[in-house]
């Protein structure tokens, strides 16, 4: 039956009546030979633009392949998208609006409609250009945007796609709460509207400075060897964190000039805080923006072994019972 219907459609008599199309002697409202030609030209033009997009993106991937050129490949693709979007707008406008007067009227109507019905979409597109112009983030950056933490894997005109990661214990109560208790991937892909950059702060973990300042806290009793515990923390940090010598002199100078980060800030350092129950030692160190959990795992294992060898225990809360209420026992 479907074949019969298709055959009837393809063999349907198509005639013209003062420029209007007729199918089965039925006049198609709003469709003329002129508009039909424009529609066909529009479809062909869109197909050509899409084919050109795939060709240019494939060429960019071929020329800028590899992990080291990932950032250049991202910006090249964004440039291709913007260029082809402009070409498509100009081409379709040229096909349908050959009269400047009609074009001005149509643009006014379209602008009014967009402003009323597509506010979020317009804001998201504006956010896309702000992201590009302000160099807010790029593909591969680790960010927090719209309440989502993770690595950017795609950036479109409307949405940003993020590979979600978990949260460290200090922010486990944040919304939404995560079951992964560290900055490792959860396996979920999250899309966030680009308009979020106008409503919430964007935290970028990797822009211009691919390192994170981290801390590890160790509580010990007041009677334990505090100097030994401090040295244990320093040894663990110096063995497993970023070596200041890995950075070139130019890189350190750039960080100092732009962000005020001194060379001494890269060196691990232990800070002490007194509490009611113990002495709290906190080692502050710098590490790379990824695989932080692996670094802290290695440090924790080394610290525990060294504490056991030095016979230093990890302090815990203690309570002194100063009195008990009287207890009365009645025998029936």
How would you sum up the global shape? elongated
Oligomeric status: single chain
Average pLDDT score: 77
Q: How many individual domains?
A: 3
How can the largest sheet be summarized?
5 strands, antiparallel
Per DSSP, the total helix count is 8
Describe the 3D structure.
The chain is built from 8 helices and 11 strands. It is 43% helix and 21% strand. The chain has 3 domains: 2-117, no CATH class; 142-204, no CATH class; 211-309, Alpha-Beta Plaits, CATH 3.30.70.100. It has helices at residues 2-10, 33-63, 70-96, 100-117, 119-133, 226-240, 249-259, 292-309, and strands at residues 14-17, 20-23, 26-32, 142-145, 148-155, 159-165, 185-193, 203-204, 211-220, 269-274, 279-288. Helix 2 (33-63) packs antiparallel against helix 3 and helix 6 (226-240) runs antiparallel to helix 8.
Concise description?
It contains 8 helices and 11 strands. By secondary structure, the protein is α+β, with helices and mostly antiparallel strands.
């Amino acid at each position: 039956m479907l074949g019969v219907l298709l055959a009837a459609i393809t063999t349907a008599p198509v005639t013209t009546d003062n420029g209007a199309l007729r199918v089965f002697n039925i006049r198609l409202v709003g469709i003329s030979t002129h508009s039909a030609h424009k529609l066909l030209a529009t479809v062909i033009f869109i197909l050509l633009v899409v084919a050109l997009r795939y060709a240019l993106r494939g060429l960019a991937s071929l020329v800028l392949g590899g992990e080291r050129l990932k950032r250049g490949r991202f910006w090249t693709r964004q440039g291709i998208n913007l260029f082809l979007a402009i070409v498509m707008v100009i081409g379709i406008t040229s096909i349908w609006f050959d009269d400047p007067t009609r074009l001005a009227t149509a643009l006014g109507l379209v602008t009014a409609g967009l402003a009323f019905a597509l506010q979020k979409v317009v804001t998201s597109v504006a956010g896309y250009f702000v992201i590009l112009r302000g160099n807010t983030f790029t593909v591969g950056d680790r960010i927090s945007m719209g309440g989502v933490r993770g690595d950017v894997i795609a950036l479109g005109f409307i949405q940003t796609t993020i590979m979600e990661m978990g949260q460290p214990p200090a922010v486990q109560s944040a919304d939404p709460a995560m079951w992964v208790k560290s900055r490792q991937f959860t396996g979920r892909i999250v899309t966030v509207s680009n308009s979020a950059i106008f409503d919430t702060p964007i935290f970028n973990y990797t822009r211009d400075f691919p390192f994170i300042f981290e801390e590890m806290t160790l509580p010990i009793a007041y009677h334990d060897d505090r100097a030994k515990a401090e040295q244990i923390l320093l040894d663990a940090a110096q063995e497993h964190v970023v070596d200041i010598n890995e950075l070139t002199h130019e890189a350190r100078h750039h960080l100092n000039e732009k962000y005020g980060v001194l060379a001494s800030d890269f060196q691990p350092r232990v800070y002490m805080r007194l509490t009611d129950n113990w002495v709290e030692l906190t080692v502050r160190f710098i590490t790379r923006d990824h695989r932080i959990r692996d670094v802290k795992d290695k440090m924790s294992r080394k610290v525990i072994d060294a504490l056991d060898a030095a016979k230093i225990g990890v302090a815990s809360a203690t309570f002194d019972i100063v009195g008990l209420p009287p207890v009365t026992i009645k025998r029936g």
